[in-house]
């Protein structure tokens, strides 16, 4: 019996949950407030290695995850649909897929607004001016308004990795160094 690809399972779970959250938020006219709460939670994930480990860890019971998520949401001022959504995700032991759910929700919301969403990985946080310039450059290429989701990953050393739809542009220093290393091996 073949083993299922974990990333595909996570992606499928993430998309189903995100789609349900978006449909409920749309029905109630709460897409903007859910997006704000979602952004607040993503910022907390980006800033806290402990929260990242907690979300990804299968060690905690559903009850422990539920209590912790409820406390974190309350402290962060996250309420309404997204707070309830987080509790359902914790109760169903799906916190591991939460980062994918957030990405999927953003894509669904951007698509609904007629925008294209881009995932950007940078070695350091982008300034507002850099984000504006990147959005303008992507709009000139795609012909549509672009919303960007920036993830900071110091391991890429420098440059950017930009994913728009099925296209990826990788100008990271890590990739350039890897390419150079391979080229040098072939020459030597």
TrEMBL record:
<keyword id="KW-0375">Hydrogen ion transport</keyword>
<dbReference type="Pfam" id="PF00213">
    <property type="entry name" value="OSCP"/>
</dbReference>
<comment type="similarity">
    <text>Belongs to the ATPase delta chain family.</text>
</comment>
<comment type="function">
    <text>This protein is part of the stalk that links CF(0) to CF(1). It either transmits conformational changes from CF(0) to CF(1) or is implicated in proton conduction.</text>
</comment>
<keyword id="KW-0066">ATP synthesis</keyword>
<keyword id="KW-1003">Cell membrane</keyword>
<keyword id="KW-0139">CF(1)</keyword>
<keyword id="KW-0406">Ion transport</keyword>
<keyword id="KW-0472">Membrane</keyword>
<protein>
    <recommendedName>
        <fullName>ATP synthase subunit delta</fullName>
    </recommendedName>
</protein>
<dbReference type="InterPro" id="IPR000711">
    <property type="entry name" value="ATPase_OSCP/dsu"/>
</dbReference>
<dbReference type="InterPro" id="IPR020781">
    <property type="entry name" value="ATPase_OSCP/d_CS"/>
</dbReference>
<comment type="function">
    <text>F(1)F(0) ATP synthase produces ATP from ADP in the presence of a proton or sodium gradient. F-type ATPases consist of two structural domains, F(1) containing the extramembraneous catalytic core and F(0) containing the membrane proton channel, linked together by a central stalk and a peripheral stalk. During catalysis, ATP synthesis in the catalytic domain of F(1) is coupled via a rotary mechanism of the central stalk subunits to proton translocation.</text>
</comment>
<dbReference type="InterPro" id="IPR026015">
    <property type="entry name" value="ATP_synth_OSCP/delta_N_sf"/>
</dbReference>
<keyword id="KW-0813">Transport</keyword>
């Amino acid at each position: 019996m073949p083993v299922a690809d974990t990333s595909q399972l996570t992606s499928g779970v993430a998309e189903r949950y995100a789609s349900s959250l978006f449909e409920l938020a749309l029905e109630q006219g709460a897409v903007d407030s859910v997006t704000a709460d979602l952004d607040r939670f993503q910022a907390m994930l980006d800033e806290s290695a402990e929260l990242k480990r907690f979300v990804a860890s299968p060690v905690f019971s559903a009850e422990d995850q539920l209590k912790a998520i409820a406390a974190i949401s309350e402290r962060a001022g996250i309420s309404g649909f997204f707070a309830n959504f987080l509790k359902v995700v914790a109760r169903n032991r799906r916190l591991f897929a939460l980062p994918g759910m957030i990405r999927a929700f953003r894509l669904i919301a951007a698509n609904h607004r007629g925008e294209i969403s881009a995932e950007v990985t940078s070695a350091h946080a982008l300034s507002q001016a850099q984000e504006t310039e990147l959005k303008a450059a992507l709009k000139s290429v795609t012909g549509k308004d672009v919303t960007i989701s920036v993830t900071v990953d110091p391991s890429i050393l420098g440059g950017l990795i930009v994913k728009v739809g099925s296209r990826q542009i990788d100008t990271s220093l890590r990739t350039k160094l890897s390419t150079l290393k391979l080229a040098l091996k072939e020459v030597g």
